[in-house]
Amino acid sequence: MRANVKSLIRIAAWCGAALWALSACQNSGSLVGSPPPDTVFESVDSPGKTVRASDFKGNVVLIDFWATWCGPCQDLMPHVKELADRYSGQGLKVLEVSTEDRSAVEAFKESGGAGYPLYLDTAKTSNMDYRYNAIPTLVLIGRDGIVRQVIEGDDPQALESAVQREMG
Hints:
The chain is of the alpha/beta class. The chain has two domains: about 30 residues; about 140 residues, Glutaredoxin (3-Layer(aba) Sandwich), CATH 3.40.30.10. The protein contains five helices and seven strands; from the N terminus they run αβββαβαβαββα.
C-alpha cells in the first residue's frame, strides 16, 4: 500500500513538473517588435468598464503586471507613479493590472497602496497572452502600438531609462 502511495506521489510530482515546463515553453518568446495582445482589462474603480492596450494607440503605454502580495511589485509602484505623474501630460498611459480578485485589489487601494487607476485581468489570461512568468513584469508600448520593451522584476533604473527613451 505504501509503495503505491509513493508511486502516486512521484507520478503527481512528475506531472506537475511537466505541466510547469510546458507552461514556461508556451510563454517563451518576446513580444518586442509586435503589437500587444488584445487582452481585456477591467477597471477596479468602474466595474464593467474595460480597456485594451490598443485603445491607447498614439500614446506610450506602460502595463505593470503586479499583485497585492508581491513585495517587489509594491516596491516598484512609487517609481511607476512618479513616471506616470511626470509624463502623463506627454501621453504616457499606465495600466496597473492584477489577476487577483477585485476585493483584494480594492482593499489594497483603500489602504493607500496605489494612487492611480488599477485594472483586473478577470479572465486571468495575461500571463499567457503577454508571456510573463513572474511579477512584476512591465510592458512598454510605443505610440505606434508596438511593444518596445519588457522588463521583468523590480528594476526602477531600467524602467526609467525605457520610459525616457520612448517619451523622446
